[in-house]
Design brief:
The protein is 64% helix and 0% strand. The chain is built from ten helices and no strands. It is globular and about 40 Å long.
Length: 193
């Protein structure tokens, strides 16, 4: 029920994450809470960084798919598919995927991954981890808008794949792995490469 142009113009990605999880835009208190949760969940365990190093020559989508699948082994509550648990896993995944992507980008260039910063917003932190310097605020704002626009993708093939997998009662990570695997296809996300 929200116009994507209004969200891109007047909102932030963090607000859009809340909207997708809760169905409405957040109050300031709710926004502060989800923003803090996202910032706190950005770091990836060393095991994931080691895995990225092992498969660094793989296609970026293969690395993302593999790391998401591997993250299931680090979740003590992996089989809990309750609404609250899945929302928390979604927040964690939203926070950690940019770290995985940036780490892979740097590792495959034989550079050391940059640890995330809690004092930067989601988009600015992503750019910081990619390039090892604090981004221009305009660049961060443009990435923020891009993330909002990508969030409004409806029921595409990867979303459909995640829903099909979820309907079989698999865990969150299995559903996300199916979604990322589908996104790689040349007629879906791969078409935009």
């Amino acid at each position: 029920g929200y116009n994507i142009h209004d969200l891109a113009e007047h909102s932030t990605f963090e607000e859009t994450v809340f909207l997708l999880l809760e169905g409405s835009l957040p109050t300031q208190v709710e926004l502060d809470k989800i923003d803090a949760e996202l910032r706190a969940a950005r770091e990836v365990p060393d095991m994931i960084l080691q895995l990225i190093s092992i498969i660094k020559s793989s296609h970026p989508m293969d690395v993302l798919r593999t790391t998401i699948s591997a993250m299931s082994s680090l979740d003590e509550d992996v089989e809990n598919n309750s609404e609250d648990s899945v929302k928390q896993k979604g927040i964690r995944m939203t926070a950690v995927v940019p770290t995985v992507i940036a780490a892979h980008h740097r590792i495959r260039q034989d550079e050391k991954p940059i640890l995330p910063r809690k004092d930067l917003g989601h988009a600015a932190n992503f750019l910081y981890m990619l390039f090892d310097n604090e981004p221009d605020p305009l660049d961060a704002k443009l990435i923020d808008k891009d993330l909002i626009l990508h969030a409004e993708h409806g029921v595409n093939a990867s979303t459909f794949a995640a829903r099909v997998a979820s309907a079989t009662k698999v865990d969150f990570y299995a559903a996300m792995t199916a979604a990322v695997a589908t996104l790689k296809g040349p007629l879906h996300g791969g078409a935009a490469e």
